[in-house]
Amino acid sequence: MSSTRTLFLVSSCLALTLISLTLVLKKWHLGLREEGGGDDGPDADLKLDLTSEKLIQQLRERQQELLPFYLNSTGDQTGNETLNEEVLGSEQGIGCSDLSGMTVVDLLGSGYTKTVLKVLTQQGSAVALKSVNEQGSDMRTCLEDFRDPQGCQELVSFKLRKEVILLQRLKHPNIVELRGQCRESGLVGGMVAVLEPGTPLQMIQLLQSPWEERFRVCLGLVRLLQYLSRSPLGSVALLDFQPRQFITVSGELKLTDLDDAVVREPSCRIDSDCLLQFPLRNFTLPCSSSGVCEGLNQLRNLYNAYRYFFIYLLPHQAPALLKPLVEEIMNTTGELKKNVEETLEDFEKVLHEYKSGLHLQNLQPSVIKDYAVVRGVKTAGDMDYRCWPSYEQQACVLSVHNALEAAHICSSHPQCTSFSLSRQRTWTGRRLASFRSGFSQMLPDVNSTLYMRSQAGVSTAAQL
Ligand SMILES: Nc1ncnc2c1ncn2[C@@H]1O[C@H](COP(=O)(O)OP(=O)(O)OP(=O)(O)O)[C@@H](O)[C@H]1O
Ligand SMILES: *[C@@H]1O[C@H](CO)[C@@H](O)[C@H](O)[C@H]1NC(C)=O
Ligand SMILES: *[C@@H]1O[C@H](CO)[C@@H](O)[C@H](O)[C@H]1NC(C)=O
Ligand SMILES: *[C@@H]1O[C@H](CO)[C@@H](O)[C@H](O)[C@H]1NC(C)=O
Ligand SMILES: *[C@@H]1O[C@H](CO)[C@@H](O)[C@H](O)[C@H]1NC(C)=O
Ligand SMILES: *[C@@H]1O[C@H](CO)[C@@H](O)[C@H](O)[C@H]1NC(C)=O
Question: Does the predicted model carry a pTM greater than 0.90?
Fold first, then answer.
């Protein structure tokens, strides 16, 4: 029986691989099929010339768009540094020759422009391959306009090339890591970026996760925005700023879609030239004496962070004593009263208080007296109950600063009769505590401490 199941598993894996490879090969053929299929008649030729003229024009514009990223902010502005991505690329690890030995295991995501596959390298480690999405609307629109598969491949590839250059220039823990690239891969017919693999950001899932994890995402975002506001390329604005431009890697937020990033801040004559428009709110910034809307890029990013992330993730279930600080952040970002640097300071302050347990000062220390402590013991045969937002779906697992905070939580849950503290810690260094309504056995475990609520404690709560 188990062998048929294994066979089934193997064949479904194979099927997936085959589907993906077929997809990949189809792309490859599409990439090759460019020269044939001409129109007939001199009029058609003329029309073709005009459209190809237009396509060449667009290709030129995309090329121009890449130029600023090759130049140092201090460098000369002649634009004469050659567009030599090979030179840049040579510092990178995984290259074209490594691609052929890879196995496609999953489709991670796709958008208007790009497709991302999860693949295993020959050494068995997983990476994400980003390439042009042949079925995407960017490609479709181009093909409708120009009927030139190779030209369109090249045109759409510029977005990925731009992204790769940006990923080479911008290095930060909250930006996806570029592990390599290949300019002309037979595998997918064009540019491929090799990235660290992650999980697409699931807003719904994140909404149901503990505040600590939601705060982590927001903090990561602000740290990213602070870096972008003074990056090696200058102040970077993300024009398309939606959750789907981000992934998480072990709970840490990372930016993955950079093709809509811009570097220069708009020039201006008067303040009203520096208008930041959002659907529900407009802001006008001062025009600097040098005729630039200074700070516009970072404030655009910050307000987008507020409206796409903070509103949903930050206030809900914040620890009671941190609420004033969190409300303050909501207000200053929602009104753009502070810049990114100052906002980051506010975030780091919240993190500091949370980590140090300062927000727990008011807890009654006597509560712990209701508990008998058994060190070096874990439980088995637990009777679990669910709580929210638990780190485990079928049980009540919460992060706590110390045993006292856990005791307060247990005493506030009528079902809770005991809890264990493990050595396992969350990203802030808080400890994970498991709360339960009963257990059948105690087992030795050096890494666990059991706290049993006294009968008196339980019945007092029951009376309340
Ligand atoms: N390294 C990665 N690991 C896992 N998933 C990823 C990774 N990079 C991107 N993705 C997923 O692939 C999707 C498409 O990537 P990307 O956003 O770069 O393409 P796009 O065509 O520019 O998308 P859009 O149309 O949303 O702008 C992303 O929304 C994300 O969910
Ligand atoms: C870019 O900057 C580096 C260091 O600041 C410098 O060594 C290099 O010559 C610059 N290149 C150009 C093209 O300006
Ligand atoms: C760019 O550099 C090349 C060779 O390095 C030179 O021939 C050319 O004149 C330069 N162009 C400009 C605009 O400086
Ligand atoms: C923002 O500005 C635009 C253009 O000036 C205007 O049409 C729009 O009504 C303004 N929106 C808000 C919410 O003020
Ligand atoms: C910020 O606070 C002020 C004063 O309390 C209030 O009027 C305003 O609506 C708040 N703005 C946001 C975005 O919360
Ligand atoms: C206890 O924790 C240490 C360090 O985290 C680990 O090496 C060890 O295996 C754990 N022991 C048990 C019994 O889980």
Answer: no
424 CB near ligand 6 (under 6 Å)? no
What is d(CA 364, CA 192) in angstroms, rounded to the nearest whole number? 58
Mean local confidence (pLDDT), 154-182: 93
Q: Boundaries of CATH 3.50.4.10 in the chain?
A: 365-463
Architecture category of domain 90-197 in CATH = 2-Layer Sandwich (3.30)
Phi/psi at 175 (5° precision): -125, 135
| Token pair of 41 as six digits | 């008649």
Q: Which ligand is nearest to the CA of 311?
A: 5
CB 58 within 8 A of CB 147: no
Which of 98, 106, 148, 240 is labelled catalytic? 240
- What CATH number does the domain located at 365-463 have? 3.50.4.10
80 within ligand 3 shell (Cβ under 6 A): yes
**What would the pLDDT profile of 71-107 be if each residue is shown by its tens digit?**
644 334 444 444 444 444 445 588 888 888 889 999 9
* Residue ranges matching CATH 1.10.510.10 in the chain: 199-359
Would you call 106 exposed, middle or buried from its count of C-beta atoms within 10 A (0-12, 13-18, 19+)? Answer: middle
Q: Which atom of ligand 4 is nearest to the CA of 277?
A: 1
Question: What's the one-letter identity of residue 457?
Answer: G
What residue ranges line ligand 1, CB within 6 angstroms? 108-114, 116, 128, 130, 133, 176, 195, 197-198, 200, 240, 244-245, 247, 256-257, 259
Q: What is the pLDDT of residues 257-285, one digit of tens each?
A: 999 999 889 999 999 999 999 999 999 99
The domain covering 199-359 belongs, at the CATH homologous superfamily level, to: Transferase(Phosphotransferase) domain 1 (1.10.510.10)
- Would residue 148 show up in a list of annotated catalytic residues for this protein? no
